[in-house]
Amino acid sequence: MEVNFEGNEQRALLGGDLNSSVPWAEDDRWWVRIPAQHTLYYLEVFRTMLYSFWNDKTLALLICVPFALLADPPTWCAKWTFAFNYISLIALESRFISTAEWIWLFSSPTVSTVLTEALPHVFPLMVGITSIIYEEISLVQSFIIGSLITNLLMVSSPGTGLSWLIGGLRFRSQSAPTTSMQSIAALTMLTVFPFIPPTFISPLYKLDPENTALFTLTITETVVMLMIYVMWLWFRYQSHVELFEWENAWDDNSPPGDHRLTGQRALPIPSRLTYIFWLIFILALSIQCSVNLIQTIPKFVQATSMSRLFIGATLLPFTSSLSNFAKTCVIAYDDRMGLVMHLTAETALGVGFFNLPALIIVSICIGHPMLLEFDIFLEVSLFITVFMAAISVQTAVFNYLKGAMNLALYGPPSYPQMT
């Protein structure tokens, strides 16, 4: 006989006590009511978890978090320690952004604006600062350039390659306003500014043993980058906000709790304070995982054929990019390519003109100054990436062939970094 916790259908309705037909969860007898209530509660929790796992596959990666926290870099196998912490960072970053989106949706416009600009930079800065603390300066430098290349070509928040490919598979071609795309092409070209000039100027200062001139150049360029980023934020949210009203309309049409943004169905949500505490808890776990990850890199490099350049430029950027992959695909699939390109330009500007100067300032404060000396191979790859992305954007017409070309362009630069 099937057990029905909502009510006993086997009880007689005629000639019996009507009170005996109440649901078991509301029964007056505590030995009936309490087990029924707990069973219903755990069934609902199980259904909710099953639904969440079905809509967000990254939740399955959270199983690696306990192993990542228990992993001791000096004693554990370097490969397993790196793998557990790397996968855990991807899963935790996905949960971090998903939780932050709930706070965005139910906050005032000012708070939402601040969170929109600040929270996406948390994980890149966390990985970068952890690397600086452990004196992995070359790793940070390759991580910054690799993040830009990944943003523009592959699968960041959002990347053009997969967006164009997925959108082109549904539509013959997608278009966006030409004037807007020309502005985005100019912004994309601007992202290469912090990296190219020091490449040609730094050899002139090689004779300086203390790198005083190069240090001055780094400080000057850091101030200029921060000024440009502040001007961009003022342009974006104050002086020319009307240019971006169409972009915000897409978010307004998505109801709170829409699975396109959060991957979760509409359920009664906890208080905002609960989400803030959950956000802090996720961040604490992520910091520990990033510390374990950076500590195990020297042993991991010795145990494998991978170089620090490959780890920083190719592997680490994915710890802060995969969370928005679903959102990128949805936007492109909905034929909103203009929005995709605006987000791409904003992300690239954030990496080049906020993350880089912030990490330089932190490195100086910690006592391990990071100068603007980057690997020449990465800089050439970045220049080609930015040039091709700008040329592709200027036409304001997108299809799957352009997406495939960008993905193909992402592959060759990654291979020589392996060893």
Topology (elements, then pairings):
Layout: H1 30-55, H2 64-70, H3 78-105, H4 109-118, H5 122-133, H6 137-153, H7 160-170, E1 174-175, H8 178-190, H9 196-201, H10 212-239, H11 245-252, H12 259-262, H13 272-303, H14 308-315, H15 325-333, H16 337-366, H17 376-394, E2 397-398, H18 400-414
Antiparallel strand pairs: 1-2
Structure description:
- There is one protein chain.
- With 419 residues, this protein is mainly alpha-helical.
- It has 2 domains: 55 residues, no CATH class; 362 residues, A middle domain of Talin 1 (Up-down Bundle).
- The protein has 18 helices and 2 strands.
- It has a two-stranded antiparallel sheet.
- Helix 5 runs parallel beside helix 16, helix 6 packs parallel to helix 14 and helix 8 runs parallel beside helix 16.
- The longest helix has 32 residues.
- It is globular.
- The N and C termini lie far apart (65 Å).
Which ranges are low-confidence, i.e. pLDDT below 50, for 5 or more consecutive residues?
A: 1-6, 11-19, 253-267
CATH top level assignment of the largest domain: Mainly Alpha
How confident is the prediction overall: mean pLDDT?
Answer: 76
Number of helices: 18
| Helix coverage percent | 55-70%
Going across the biggest sheet, name each strand in turn. Answer: 1-2
Tell me about the biggest sheet? 2 strands, antiparallel
How many discrete domains?
A: 2
CATH architecture of the largest domain: Up-down Bundle
What coarse outline follows from CA principal-axis ratios?
A: globular
Strand content: under 5%
Q: And the CATH topology of the largest domain?
A: A middle domain of Talin 1
GO cellular component, one term: vacuolar membrane
Subcellular location: Endomembrane system
Membrane topology: Multi-pass membrane protein
Keywords: Ion transport, Membrane, Transmembrane, Transmembrane helix, Transport
